Amino acid sequence: VKKAEIALKNMLPDPTDIVVNILRADNTFQMRYAALGVEDRSDASAERKTEAAAVAIEVGLIYNKTQLSDYRYLTRTRVKACEMIRDYEHPHPQAVEWLGRLLNESENTNELVTCLQAFGVYESDAAVEIMATYLDKNNELKSAGKQYDHERVIRECINSLGSSGNPLGREALLMVEYSG
Predict the structure, then answer these.
(1) pTM
(2) Residue-wise pLDDT tens digits, 30-71
């Protein structure tokens, strides 16, 4: 894996197309994670890097029933993809659907927190509606006397809704019953 990573980085300044092919191919998540790392360290544009990150999230959701030995790389791949969207601040439009699914399907706190951080770079109504719905669902549980499963995640959802700057998030933020 390391030799392939070094060779790929040295051959192409923008390996996005190859990385996307690796992500979509029948590979282990260790290989996919390594390919995403090559993309992250490449000279590709922020737009191309977040394109690969969106594919990584998609693939991470499609092949989420992975062997236990590969599960940690599945999580690392999802987290890395979300970090790339967050860090490059170039919201890829296709990622909204996949980030929304990750937010609603994952039970991993790190995945959820970085997913919401990635959502924070989106100003679109679709992204804000997904976050607002997530916050509203958890607010309803809190109102019914249940505890939040992930306090850190709820705090990040509040932060990301606020940082989106989209007025649609205001109502969800006003309705939240959170203290922590």
Answers:
(1) 0.88
(2) 999 999 999 999 999 999 999 999 999 999 998 876 666 788
In the numeric block, which tokens belong to residue 85? 């969207």
Q: Which two tokens stand for residue 148?
A: 């939040």
Cα separation, 142 vs 113, in Å, equals 19
Q: Hey, how many other C-beta atoms are within 10 angstroms of the C-beta on 68?
A: 6
Nearest CA to 155 out of 120, 123, 130, 105 is that of 120
Angle, in degrees to the nearest 10, between helices 125-143 and 109-119? 140
Query: For 108-133, how does the pLDDT look when each residue is reduced to its tens digit (9 = 90+)?
Result: 999 999 999 999 888 889 999 999 99
| Crossing angle of the two packed helices 95-105 and 46-62, in degrees rounded to 10 | 40
In single-letter form, the type of residue at position 132 comes to A
Give ∠ CA 35-19-29 in degrees, rounded to 5. Answer: 45
- The rounded distance, in Å, linking the Cα atoms of 178 and 48 is 38
Q: Pick from 83, 15, 25: which is nearest to 48 by CA?
A: 15
Write the DSSP symbol of residue 148.
Answer: P
